[in-house]
Amino acid sequence: MPVQVLINLFIAFLWMFFQDEWGILSFFSGYIVGIVVLFSLRRFFPSSFYLKRFFAIMNLFLLFIRESVTSSVAIMKEVIRPNIDVTPGIFKMETDLEGDLEITLLALLLTLTPGSVVIEVSPSNKIFYLHALNLPQSKHAVFQSQIKYEKAIKEVTR
User: Fold this and answer.
1) Cross-strand bridge partners of residue 130
2) Closest CA relative to residue 95, chosen from 137, 129, 135
3) What pTM was estimated for this model as a whole?
């Protein structure tokens, strides 16, 4: 992936030299030409096209922002409610992610799910223990978030 970025930057600078214009617009048009060239030659590179991973990272970031806003609204509703009726509890959740980066990302993102906090990760990195503010609702929300997060994390890291 870094090689593709460097080649794309090289093509952009080469484009500026051939156009004999030193400006951001000329560099940007050369960068677009470089993207087209690299996309057409993508099968000759050992890794996937680098913009695919960039868009996967942006997708994960937007998912994080959306879940963060949803989590904040849900917790504010719980706090503002006149009578607090919660049933806290601890439950376990299994994952099929591998590697320290994937496990850490999932643990951090699950902590943002409304009313849940990752307490511990098993030594095998396959089981999370979570504390839920309102066990039935939070457990369902965590399992739904887990599916979305795992898919997005796999797109970024694999």
Assistant:
1) 91, 118
2) 129
3) 0.80
